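Changelog-linked ticket: zinc ion example.
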Amino acid sequence: MGLGDFFKKTFGKQVCALCGKECGVMHRTKVQGGEYVCSECARECSKHVRISEFTLDEVKGHIEYMRRQEKLYKECFENAKRETFPSPYDKQAISFADEIGMFAILDRDNYENKVNHELFRYDQVLSYERYVEKQKAAEEGKPDVFKESGVKIRLVGTRDHVEHDMKRSQMGLKVHPYIKREIKVVFHTRETDVDYTDNAVAHFDFIFGVHDDEHGLFSFGMSKKEKRDLMGTVAGVKTIIEAAKIAKEGEEALTEEKKTRIQENMNAMQNAQTGGLAVYSRRADAAEAKIN
Ligand SMILES: [Zn+2]
């Protein structure tokens, strides 16, 4: 290949493998396999993926996924009861919709001009933590100054997925189909009196039942976890009794009413096993079923 060809190939116009439009070097991404995707088509993709790591088929699948996400956002998330931290926000925020078991990252700037909103299921969250970044002071000898604070979220399927994560992924967690990197949600770019990252972390704790096995100072009796475990045990016994009856009386004995009761008992068992997360998984499944 001559030098002229090299420049033409590298800097010349190429055709987008998705929409067929010509795209210059500044307005395209080379995907795995050598085809190009233009920046207009890339606007349909998640902010949290790098399409240069995808094959063309993966990009196509991902865009389909993102279009469904936008529908889910418009039809199920926007009208749901939500808790947003920080609220109001001037950079980014996490907006929780417990009734569909999902959250969104709100972004004031949307500097990449993305067209589709994106939701994350609670059962896709592997870990979350508050972070604070500081930078060197302009003056020598002065202490480091505040740069930003926020929440770091890792989803199931993140590349550095380690062994203790695997244990959690057996507890009813789901692998995110596309996002492989840690997500940083910037809450504050100035030091503030009220740091909302704590509120967001507390809400994640609530979802994952982190404090459920603690007894409240004035609560006699059982903690939330103990209640859930007991209900799970009772449900297990009930299910076995129902199953034994059906085995004895034959399949005709399995009425709609019994089926519903067995399903309820199985849900209670699942809740006990997953630390309460299964409630949110079922809500997220129901929301997704509405869209598909
Ligand atoms: Zn295109």
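Closing comment: Example verified and attached. The first helix runs from residue 3 to 11. Residues 224-275 form one domain.
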